[in-house]
Write a structure and sequence with these properties.
Length: 453
């Protein structure tokens, strides 16, 4: 492979690098949309952390390279690029190299990583080359942190950075308000709202989300109960637990934590849930009412409701704006589109079969993305000044984090923050608001049950 690389280098050394590299990248948008497998490992072998000129890939994957390197099968999925420059002046020259890649190195999704090397020679000419570091893709450079490149390089970091929409503190305020209402309820009628959660299996991320829900309930004074079932439990066991909560008058909201293990029929189970306690708002009756004008659903799904709250509380006008929702799932994308439409936005949907998603997205004033694909939305997908709500939460194993994993959003944050006017972080954006909305739905349900205004 090194031989091919050198041939190509000789042929291309005089060609202008950057425009070619980026236009090739741009004209191949499909390379940017690669769905990652679930729960990945961080093991990048040492060979990728050396910066030698040698680059025999240890295994075959997909890789696309630009600049002074050839498209080569490698362990890097997505794309990698490398480029060199030589700038000469009267008595010397400057040269250097950049290399980087996107998406995945040995299955590890990463933000755009860049290594930048720069050399100055006082006399004569020289060239910087990304050498084997290009050949090796950015696996070499995962240690160097997040890059800014191309047009993003030109902006100063502290200028034009988007406002960060702080979902965590917004949610804390909402939960405190709910707490106040719970006290009022308790003092007037001696009752408090109750939330029941059914958790099947041992997914670490689900356990964290449920733990966060319990903690929020405790803060607000909402009674929290949970049934934990084994991964291999039967449908009947789940339904029995559901039926018990359906009948229990001190439970006003029931949530079956998704995803369920594959052997369980989600639709069948959710159909058992009492409509008046379906605080997730997933039942077709709630969705139907959400979709039809002039009707009010009993419950609005928590995540899309949280997205709207984030926009409204950040003073982002929705009416008359172009909104793009990436994803069309029953629990996030579809209800988010319906809700935005209710708020009089003009809504486009982008999904896995959408052609030119970056073009559609780049016309949006508001982008809500819920695909579950890390780094799907790049800086150049966004209209300058757009507001970005990143719903995506993609867990990747990371032993350095307390829970053993960390979360990635759908948006390449470091790029988007230079283009957007406001953006939600992951974590700390939509997630906490989802929980606040769950509590709000539970409070509403209890108020309805006790006819308490
Ligand atoms: N922060 C929070 O509170 C919450 C976060 N989430 C997160 O949001 C994300 C989405 O969740 P959910 O809706 O349940 O996921 P689903 O997998 O059910 O749906 C994903 C949607 O994204 C679309 N999609 C997938 N890949 C692409 C792509 N490359 N380009 C464009 N569209 C794509 C799919 O299209 P198609 O329909 O064509 O397959 C589908 O409509 C996940 O990361 C999830 O963890 C979910 C709930 C709450
Ligand atoms: N029936 C059902 N209803 C849901 O609403 C539901 C579900 N199933 N299954 C999974 C998704 C996902 N979801 C999240 C909730 C909280 C955070 C959350 O608290 N996130 C924190 C970080 C959490 C962490 O540290 O891992 C944050 O973004 O700051 C994230 C995601 C609800 N969902």
């Amino acid at each position: 492979m090194a031989v091919v690389w050198h041939k190509w280098l000789r042929k291309s050394i005089l060609s202008p690098f950057s425009s070619r590299a980026f236009s090739t990248l741009k004209s191949n948008p499909s390379q940017q949309i690669i769905k990652s497998p679930p729960l990945l490992s961080h093991d990048v072998p040492d060979v990728w952390t050396s910066n030698s000129m040698h680059c025999d890939p240890p295994s075959i994957g997909e890789c696309y390279m630009f600049g002074y390197a050839v498209g080569t099968p490698l362990v890097c999925r997505g794309y990698a690029f490398g480029m060199s420059w030589v700038r000469s002046w009267k008595h010397g020259c400057e040269c250097g190299c950049w290399c980087g890649c996107g998406y995945e190195v040995r299955g590890v999704p990463i933000r755009q990583i860049l290594k930048k090397e720069r050399y100055k020679y006082k006399y004569g000419y020289g060239w910087g080359s990304t050498g084997a570091s290009v050949g090796a893709g950015a696996g070499v450079d995962t240690r160097y942190g997040v890059c800014r490149y191309g047009k993003f390089l030109k902006k100063k970091d502290n200028e034009r950075r988007a406002r960060v929409i702080d979902g965590k503190s917004m949610a804390a305020k909402i939960i405190a308000g709910i707490g106040g209402e719970v006290i009022r309820m308790q003092e007037s009628i001696g009752k408090v709202p109750g939330l029941a959660v059914i958790l099947v299996g041992e997914r670490k991320d689900s356990e964290t989300y449920v733990r966060n829900k319990r903690k929020a309930c405790e803060e607000a004074g909402i009674n929290f109960v949970m049934t934990k079932l084994l991964n291999n439990c039967t449908e009947d066991e789940v339904c029995e637990a559901l039926l018990r909560y359906n009948e229990n008058p001190s439970v006003h909201g029931i949530l079956v934590q998704l995803p369920l293990p594959h052997h369980l029929d989600e639709e069948k189970i959710l159909n058992v849930l009492n409509l008046e306690k379906d605080v997730d708002g997933f039942h077709p009756v709630h969705m139907g009412n959400l979709a039809m004008s002039g009707r009010e659903p009993l419950f609005i799904p928590c995540t899309p409701k949280g997205c709207i709250e984030l926009l409204v509380r950040s003073d982002v006008e929705i009416m008359g704006k172009n909104a793009v929702v990436i994803g069309r799932s029953n629990i996030v994308g579809l209800p988010a589109s319906l809700l935005l439409q209710r708020h009089h936005a003009t809504v486009s949907t982008v999904h896995a079969f959408t052609k030119n998603p970056e073009h559609i997205t780049s016309e949006a004033d508001i982008v809500v993305t819920a695909a579950g694909v890390p780094n799907l939305v790049r800086g150049n997908w966004l209209k300058p000044g757009a507001v970005v709500i990143d719903v995506g939460t993609y867990p990747i194993e990371d032993p350095s984090f307390e829970q053993g994993y960390r979360l990635l959003g759908d948006v390449c944050y470091e790029e988007a923050v230079m283009v957007a006017s406001a953006i939600t972080p992951v974590p700390g954006g939509v997630g906490p608001m989802t929980i606040a909305m769950l509590l709000s739905n539970t409070l509403d349900s209890a108020k309805r049950a006790y006819n308490f205004g």
